[in-house]
Amino acid sequence: MNGMKMKFDVLTCALSGANAMALVWTFCSLMIAFFPKFAGQLMLYATHLSGEQFHAITVQGFIGGFVTVWLYAFVLVGLFAHLYNKSTR
After folding, report:
1. Is the pTM of this model over 0.85?
2. How many CB atoms sit inside 10 A of residue 16's CB?
3. Which of 21, 31, 35, 47 could form a disulfide with 73 if both were Cys (CB 3.0 to 4.6 A apart)?
4. Distance between CA 65 and CA 44 in Å, rounded?
5. How far is CA 70 from CA 40, 48, 82, in A?
């Protein structure tokens, strides 16, 4: 390796992380839209909650959540890659 240290391409990592989270968001939204009872039970199980509170998926809610999740993931993964690169100098 001749003293070389691996660096992340910050933009590529941020885009990859954001796109992966966008896929997860889309999958979860589709599950809620097409299988609301199953998705509700799965959410209750995954978050250790009790009760029956189901939410309807609207086009505005989906797009708003999609953009929010994508932006948060982009910023957080990009920040991680940037900090990792700084720490390996």
Report:
1. no
2. 15
3. 21
4. 20
5. 23, 26, 18
